[in-house]
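Case study 2.
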Amino acid sequence: MTSSAGKKVVVTGATGNVGTSVVAALAADPGVASIRGIARRMPGWSPPKTEWTAVDLRQEIDLVPHFKGADAVIHLAWAFQPTHDPSATWRTNVLGSLQVFRDAAAAGVPALIHASSVGTYSPGRDAGAVDESWPTHGASEAAYCREKAYLERVLDTHELRNPGMRVVRMRPAFLFKEESGPEQRRIFGGRFLPGPLASPRTVPVVPDIPGLRFQALHTDDAARAYVLAVHREVSGAFNLAAESPLDARDLAALLDARTVRLPRAAARAALVTGYALHLLPASPQLFDAVLRLPLLDCTRARDQLGWQPEHTAQEAVGEMLKGMRTGTGMDTAPLAGRKAS
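Prediction:
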């Protein structure tokens, strides 16, 4: 199916944080002939070798014509909001993904590369760094974890029914880049969160919550793993992270702040109140997940994909904070910038 000029790749969710990095990496790859970017809203951004198609995965749409002739489908489309309406995110994230999986198989696409997540893993904070064999039942009752874990079970069955399709599951840590700052400000802090709060010396203290430790990864580093999976005959799951985890002291250093110990119960109570009042979009269950997630062992990605991150976790988070305070974004609907107020 691959032409002499290179591979044809379809990317769903092509205008978001991960999608824009994946499309840019594919566009720069001489082994890729063409890219079809699928998104709910057409972007102003026009990378080389890319054609755009507007598709709303909340609707039942036949994707087979868009997938025909592709060498790989990279499925990134995901809705984080509205967190207060889990039926809405289920419709996009789960039912939409099922449509993508079915239609990719019906179109005869030889490779499906799916964006799973560290959030699919079961609790394992005290287990050390875990490999891809760790159970994937979700770290909390958060809709994000529930939906990611459910799709892992769907893919188990999908692989059995479609033995001729190579299925890859990427399980990255939290993904950041400068251009994602405005989007992540809206997703996790709310659209009214002032951008200057991400500025050094503006935040005097960072709460040091017991158990708060997480891994991060620059989105461009994750994108390189997706492109490697297009070209290499690999299958199965791959952990992706800059392996040194971050804690409150690292965040305080980025913000030129000091840490103040805050009990976990007090932090969660504040989140419960803010979420109940619709002041915060991130649910308390997502906070629970962050405190329970295992750390990721990325040996398999290094050995089988030949992948290594080029940025540290501190650099990735630092870029995101810069994007939040400056309003840096891209000419796509998910990453639309907004100048800090």
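The CA atoms of residues 40 and 56 lie 5 Å apart.
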